[in-house]
Amino acid sequence: MFVHRIKTLKTENATIFALPTSVREVVSWYGSFYSFPEGNYPDPMLLQELMVAMLDKGTLYRDKFLISDELESRGAQLQLFSDGLRIGFFGRALKTDLPAVLGVLGEQLNAPQFDPGEFEKLRLQTISARQRSLSNTRYRAELALNHALYPDNHPNYNTSAEQEIALLEDMKLEQIRAYHQKHVSANQLIISTAGDVDPDGFASMVDQVFLGWKVENRTSTFATLGNINPGKTVTALKDRQNLDVMMGIPIPVTTLHPDYLALYLATYILGGNFSARLMNTVRDEQGLTYGIGASLSGVTQEYAGYFQIYVTLSQENLGKGITATEEQLRKWVQEGITESELAEKKTTIAGKYQVEMATTHGLARAMQQNAEEGYALDMLDDYVPKIEALTADEVNRVIRKYINPEDIHLSIAGTLPE
Length: 418
Hints:
Blueprint: E1 7-10, E2 14-20, E3 26-34, H1 44-54, H2 64-73, E4 77-83, E5 86-94, H3 98-110, H4 116-133, H5 137-149, H6 161-170, H7 173-183, E6 189-195, H8 199-209, E7 231-236, E8 242-250, H9 260-271, H10 277-285, E9 291-297, E10 306-314, H11 318-335, H12 339-356, H13 360-372, H14 379-389, H15 392-402, E11 409-414
Parallel strand pairs: 2-6, 7-11
Antiparallel strand pairs: 1-2, 3-5, 3-6, 4-5, 8-10, 8-11, 9-10
Helix pairs in contact: 1-7, 3-8, 4-6, 9-12, 9-15, 10-11
């Protein structure tokens, strides 16, 4: 369906996946590179977050207003983001504007201005955001679960807002500059593009934009697995009538693990959308919550993630809601999924995938995600058939293999009922 139309190109510094489509004049792209956010830093993820946020505040050649005018006048989109071990970017532009827009991207990555005034504004805004999160029940429940499951040298470990605020209070622009100097380089640079694109011409532009970009051959030293840690953590917050509850367990499964797709489908059946089992029972039938779901989080090709259930409950329904959720979890593990659930969710996932692949933006994002997760190009065509080929026996096997309700860690945040 897609693979035979994708052209793979290798430039001096990048691997490019280009998919020409029937859409005229418009080109979309996604890209990323390894940043290796490790080292002798108090919180490298926080430094990376602020460094990336500074990249669109102006370059050595143009301030942020000139860059904004350049993009707006062309109707182009360009954004950079921090994504765990990688720094990413995406954009969309008219075919004729590609050299100019990619040129802006190159400036932002290679020659940021790092204006002191812009940094100070960003630092204060980030402190304010972290202060607000201290009273956010969802954030506090997730953080407590995160700390229960992961050591501080795992990429899924999150520093607390209190610690980040303390670091931000003393953070200097020189730290941001040093982080950029050490961590922004063409390490496994991947770019995926779709639309009215000439693959060879696009590759030539990428070569010009990233000409001379250094490549550093280094490896990561982080932990790859979380910790089984049954028990309960309660984070008491004042004046919060609704409480957030998280239940989680680490899973020794990466995106490349042969059980990953079956476990993903199993979790989707339990709590992946509004017609999933948890919504049908705890919310619709029992009326105990407006929000509940389940997901696999923090799973990459490099390290394993965790299975989690989240539910928002009132003080009145806290006990009943937790009990009802745990009952559905045990039933899911002990009795498994049904054939009707399996068929319904296969149809849902296939339809969702087709919708996502219907635009140049969606195609570029899918190719990029496929590459970052370590799959061969064939997976773009094989994903839906692989999902459709899964049987109820296979799905139920992985549920019982990886999810033990007795090993679940429970995290509650909010104002506890008296």
